[in-house]
Amino acid sequence: MVRLPPVPAERHVIGIDVDVLFGAVPHRQLDASLDAVAHQQESHGIRRGLLCSLRGALFDVSSGNDETRKATEQQQRFVPVGSVDIRDALGAEDEIGRLAEAGVKILRLFPPEQWVEPGSPGLAAIIDTAVGHDLVLLTSGDFSQFWRPFADRGARVCFLDVHAYRVADFVVTARREPGFVASTRMLVGPDSIERIAGEVGAHHLAYGSRTPLHDVMPSALRLRMAGLTKQEWKQVAGGTAAGWLGEAL
Amino acid sequence: MIIDVHAHAGPWFFATDVGAAELNITLMDRYGIDRQIVSASEAVTYDMVAGNRWMAEVLEAHPRLLGYVVVNPNDLAAGARELEKYQPTGRFVGVKVHTTYPGQTLLSKAIQDTMALAAQAGLPVLVHTWDESVLGLVDVLERHPGLRVIAGHMGGPAWRTAVEAATRTDRLYLEPCCSITDAGRYRYALDRVPLEQMLFGTDSTLVDPAIAMGVVVDAALTEDEYEHVMWRNAARLFGIETDQAA
C-alpha cells in the first residue's frame, strides 16, 4: 500500500482550509453534501474550513448565502463565506450589505465560473463595495489576469488559483500589496510555497484544498512536507485565515 | 516498489530552482520512488539534441533514472538519429513527444509520424495530452499495430475522454499526473480502464511528487491495484528489471 513519508506531529492537523464548497456540482457526479464535505475535511486532518455554497455561486445568491449560514450553524467546524453574482453587480451591492450586517467577514468571488473577465466594471464595483465593508475577499481565476482589479485598493484578498507557474507574478505583486495572499492548492512545484514564504513572508500564504471538487490529500501532503519553519507552517496552515477572522494565531 | 513513468530533469523557465538532477533523487527518496523515467526539460522545450545529450550524461551518473529520448516532431530525421544514438545504450527506454513546444497538435501528421518511428524502434511513447483529441489516439494505434502510447496527464481536463479512449484499445496507457487534481479522477479511471493500462507518474521535478502521491492516496487503491499501477505495469511496458517477484 501507499507509504507516505513521516510528517512531524505538529503538522498532522491543518488549522483552517480557506477553500471549501458544498452543494450541487452539475458538471460532475460528486457527493458535495455538507456531511460529505465535513467528513472529507475531518478524514484529512483539517480542523476548520471557510465554507461557501455552490448554490450562491452557480444559481441564486440570496438562498445560497442563507444555505451557507444554516450549514455553518449545523457544522460548527465551518465559518460562513458569502458570495455574490458578479453578473448582477446591482444586486450584489444589496447582498454585500446584508452579509456584512449579518456578521459575515469573508466574501468569495467566482469570476471564471460566472464568465466574468478581469476588466469587468461590475467586478471592480463589487470589490470596492466589499473593501468598503472591510470584508476579506476570496477569488478564483488566473492570478496573472485577475490581480489587477484587486490592486491599489487596500484589498485583503486570497487568490485561490495561483499556480506554481505564476509564483513570480504573485511575488512581485505581493511586494506592494500587503493584503494579497496565495492559496497553496496549486503551488505544486517543489519550491513554490517555500519561494513565496521566503520572498514576501508566510503571511502571504494560506492553505486551500477546494474540497469537494479536488482531491484533498495532494494539497494537504504538499503543505505537510513544505520546507517551512514551525512558525511559517503554522501561519500558512491557519494563521493567515485566523487573522482575517480576528482570531489569534 | 514505485516506478514513476513521467518525470523530467533539468531547469525550467519559471521561478523555480529544480535544475539539478540531484533534486530528482532527493524527491524520489522522500516519497519512496525507486525508479524514474525522465526527459530533459531542454530537449522538451528548446533543443532536442543538446537536451538528449545532457540527459545521457545524467543517466550515466544516476542509475535509478532511466530516460526518454525526446523527439521533436518537426525534424523527424534528426529524431531518428537521436534514437539510433541513444537506444543502444540501454539507458533510454521510451520516446517522449510534446505538443505545445513543437507547436503541433496531438493528431497532426508530424506527431503521428513520430509515434510510428517509436513503434519501429519498439519503444513506448509518452505523449502530452490535454484535450479531447486524446480520443483520436485510438485510430492512431489501430494504424500502427506495434505502437504503445502513454497518454501523459491522462488528457488533462479531458480525463473522461482519455478513459473512454483507453477502454477502446489495450495499447493506450493512462498516466494521471496533473496539477489540477479533480476529485475522484484517478478512481474513475481505475474503475473503467483495464488495470494493466494504468500507470503512475509525477511530473517531477516540475511538480512535487506529493501531488501525485496524494492523488493515489485519495483513490484508495487495493493491494492489487497498487502493485499494478505503481510499478508492475511500468516494468512490463518498459522492460525494466526489478528485484520484486514477478
UniProtKB/TrEMBL annotation, chain A:
Q: Which UniProt keywords apply?
A: Hydrolase
Molecular-function annotations in GO:
hydrolase activity
Query: Can you tell which superkingdom this protein's organism belongs to?
Result: Bacteria
- Write the protein's name: TIM-barrel fold metal-dependent hydrolase
UniProtKB/TrEMBL annotation, chain B:
Keyword annotations from UniProtKB, A to Z: Lyase
A Gene Ontology term for the protein's cellular component: cytoplasm
Q: Which residues form the Amidohydrolase-related domain?
A: 3-240
Any idea which GO molecular function terms this record carries? carboxy-lyase activity; hydrolase activity
Keyword Nucleotide-binding appears in the UniProt entry: no
- Pfam families per the record? Amidohydro_2
Q: GO terms for biological process? A: secondary metabolic process
Output the SUPFAM superfamilies linked to this UniProt entry: Metallo-dependent hydrolases
Question: Which InterPro entries is this protein grouped with?
Answer: ACMSD (IPR032465), Amidohydro-rel (IPR006680), Metal_Hydrolase (IPR032466)
Q: What name does this protein carry?
A: Amidohydrolase-related domain-containing protein
* Organism, scientific name: Lentzea atacamensis
